[in-house]
Amino acid sequence: KNEVEQSPQNLTAQEGEFITINCSYSVGISALHWLQQHPGGGIVSLFMLSSGKKKHGRLIATINIQEKHSSLHITASHPRDSAVYICAGNFGNEKLTFGTGTRLTIIP
Amino acid sequence: GAVVSQHPSRVICKSGTSVKIECRSLDFQATTMFWYRQFPKQSLMLMATSNEGSKATYEQGVEKDKFLINHASLTLSTLTVTSAHPEDSSFYICSAGTRNPYSNQPQHFGDGTRLSIL
């Protein structure tokens, strides 16, 4: 069964803190996606990765294939980073299997 | 970057009305579009996958006669909620991708449609 699990479910931090959101998945994943959903509902695709590490601005995504684990890091967090972050995986086809999301709140 | 436009962003209508939601890829050809439904504080649930020029593939438990999907061109897919009832009230969101049999491609999401049936 294709599974994607995220932790924590909720995360509150002070502005400027380094943030880590974790994602673990079952075998058979071909690509791992990190998505950001804003309060209005719109979703932005942040990263798609199958190995190694990717960086975009203050966001960094890593994946460890052997451990079946991915992390999303946010450096120098800011209140505008407050959103729900969703980990999702492709398991050999186009469909995405979603994690339950992590609700991040950054306090000024 | 790639943009997907979804309209309308919000619909409020009476029970029994049919509601059409459009999903357009603005700067790329979307061979595949996905329609999701999301209840408050829950994850996205895939409803159906539509491929240009062919019938949509519905997930188990999704009524195809209730949720009509049309993907008539490489830039447009529509979801029609027929004879909508209050239990159909939800957040509907589409995503679009370009099929590549050799590798997974990012999906590009619309901004979603919040449907409220009175």
Describe this structure in words.
The complex is a heterodimer of chains A (108) and B (118). Chain A is globular. Chain A contains no helices and 11 strands. Chain A is an all-beta fold and 108 residues long. The mean pLDDT of chain A is 93. Chain B is mainly β and 118 residues long. Helices cover 0% and strands 50% of the residues of chain B. Chain B contains no helices and 11 strands. Chain B starts with a strand and ends with a strand. Chains A and B meet through strand 4 and strand 5 of A and strand 4, strand 9 and strand 10 of B.
Short summary:
Chain A has 108 residues and is mostly beta strands. Chain A has no helices and eleven strands.
Short descriptors:
heterodimer, A: 108 residues, mainly beta, six-stranded mixed sheet, five-stranded antiparallel sheet, 11 strands, B: 118 residues, seven-stranded mixed sheet, four-stranded antiparallel sheet
Number of beta-strand segments of chain A = 11
Biggest chain contact: A-B, 21 and 24 residues
Could you tell me how far the N terminus lies from the C terminus of chain B, measured between alpha carbons in angstroms?
37 Å
Mean pLDDT of chain A: 93
Give the DSSP E fraction of chain A (strand runs of 2 or more residues). Answer: over 45%
* Beta-strand content estimate of chain B: over 45%
> Describe the biggest sheet of chain A?
6 strands, mixed
Helix content of chain A: under 10%
What overall geometry of chain B do the principal axes of the alpha carbons give?
globular
